[in-house]
């Protein structure tokens, strides 16, 4: 489980694409407000500073399907921003892969790492929702600055090197009772 120390200042960083894969791998629907409230209240005497959410947004391509997807994403991000998340976005890129398939690419790792480093002087503990091994070196550098780092992901979605580098690894499944939507009827904004 997550452990916080008294008077420890912490922030949460969510790699949306990777978090989405983790949730899907365990068939979990997260209530964004419950997630935020979990960190606001379940931290003992520590000091919760901020929760960041990183999302790439596909460009409109004229299709109804893409238009609806973009609309759902914007609705969800507006809801998150209104409810206390710091939302960081950029446009996804469309390209054709080596097999000729159209692929959307929207890597937010750079933005997330820059923000973690920029705010780290004001933090004691950094919580990262991602299983992406690309964060391993950034975590090492944060630890060299004396920061504790907790990584939250699911077993099938975390790189071994990231799990080993983190001070603490928390399986997303362990947070299910605290952050999952209570029933399907509350899913007015689709998981994207």
Commentary on this structure:
The chain has seven helices and eight strands, in the order E-H-H-E-H-E-E-E-H-E-H-E-H-E-H. It is α/β, with parallel strands linked by helices. It has a single domain, classed as 5'-nuclease (Rossmann fold). The chain has a six-stranded parallel beta sheet with strand order 3-2-1-6-7-8, sandwiched between helices. It has a two-stranded antiparallel ribbon with strand order 4-5. A hairpin with a 5-residue loop joins strand 4 and strand 5. The chain starts with 8 loop residues before the first strand and ends in a 13-residue tail after the last helix. The C terminus is likely disordered.
Top keywords for this entry?
two-stranded antiparallel ribbon; alpha/beta; Rossmann fold; 192 residues; disordered C terminus
